[in-house]
Write a structure and sequence with these properties.
Elements (H helix, E strand, L loop, with lengths): L1 H8 L5 H7 L4 E12 L2 E12 L3 E5 L6 H9 L3 E9 L2 E2 L5 H8 L1 E4 L11 H7 L7 H14 L1 H4 L11 H13 L5 E5 L7 H16 L4 E5 L3 H7 L2 E6 L2 E7 H6 L1 H7 L3
Parallel strand pairs: 3-8, 3-9, 6-7, 7-8
Antiparallel strand pairs: 1-2, 1-4, 4-5, 9-10
The structure holds adenosine-5'-diphosphate (ADP) and magnesium ion.
Length: 262
């Protein structure tokens, strides 16, 4: 596997090629990013382009640095060099709170982060804890309840009664209370039964198509992730080895052999 991955790394796509995948209305850009944890660099001269209301899926082996990309965008890593920009404005060293509040970047955790003893409604309102006006959080929560009756039907019950799929829906919805324009979603299908996996991708698809959210997703289930996303980057050892439209990558024999079990 390791040798195959290095072969694939041979002709890494440059920034021009990546930019061509996101030609309109650039929303978020990463320029030559070197970032990691402590003194250890995980990402090496990493570039990324994503247009407004486009979805990008990061796939690749465990430990490749996929979550580290989301962490870097949100502000959980050490950035040694390079820039992150939203609509042309540099945000590299903003705190996560500033990113959520002023540039609308929300991070949806990989780990289960629902508070089991709080009600569904209280969990939802937690998403707006950072907002200056609490009535806005109530309004957003109300919109979410209008949209998802699975949550509305249980709004006054403790979140621990929710099924796995409903919990994931609550985790995603909680981020929406802040009305973000960019959603960073780490492995939304992990630990879910197949029928809930479908539901989660339908929700993400709706957020992209009807609410024009820009979505960057990490997905271990490469097939699902690439079927959902407009474009995909295959990450190997902190660098993009292959990039293309979701459909191109699904048909790429190297991607198939390495990540789709084909
Ligand atoms: N908080 C952390 N502190 C130190 N090293 C980390 C931390 N999180 C991840 N790493 C390391 O960074 C590398 C990339 O991890 P990660 O981005 O989580 O990979 P992926 O999401 O692609 O599986 C791994 O070697 C991992 O051990
Ligand atoms: Mg990860």
């Amino acid at each position: 596997m390791a040798t195959d991955q290095y072969e694939v790394l041979g002709d890494s796509p440059g920034p021009e090629e990546l930019e061509n995948l996101s030609p309109n209305d650039l929303h978020l850009r990463i320029k030559k990013l070197n970032a990691g944890y402590g003194k250890m660099a995980i990402l090496h001269d990493f570039d990324l382009f994503v247009s407004k209301a486009q979805s990008l899926c990061l796939v690749g082996p465990n430990g490749a640095g996929k979550s580290t990309i989301l962490h870097s965008i949100y502000g959980f890593t050490n950035i040694f060099s390079g820039q992150i920009e939203i609509e042309g404005k540099e945000i590299t060293s903003m705190t996560p709170a500033e990113k959520l509040k002023s540039v609308g970047i929300a991070y949806i955790l990989q780990d289960n982060s629902v508070f089991p003893d709080m009600t569904v409604e209280e969990n939802l309102l937690m998403g707006g804890y950072i907002k200056d006006k609490t009535e806005e959080s109530y309004e957003e929560a109300e919109k979410i309840f209008e949209k998802y009756d699975r949550l509305r039907n249980r709004r006054n019950q403790a979140a621990k009664v929710l099924s796995g799929g409903e919990r994931r829906l609550l985790e995603i919805s909680r981020a929406l209370v802040m009305k973000p324009s960019v959603l960073l979603v780490d492995e939304p299908s992990i630990g879910l039964e197949p029928r809930y996996i479908e539901m989660v991708f339908e929700i993400l698809n709706d957020l992209q198509k009807s609410e024009k959210k820009t979505i960057i997703i990490v997905e271990q289930n490469a097939k699902k992730g690439l079927e959902f996303a407009d474009i995909g980057y295959v990450l190997v050892s902190g660098q993009t080895a292959i990039a293309g439209s979701g459909d191109e990558l699904l048909e790429n024999p190297d991607v198939g052999r390495l990540f789709l079990g084909g």
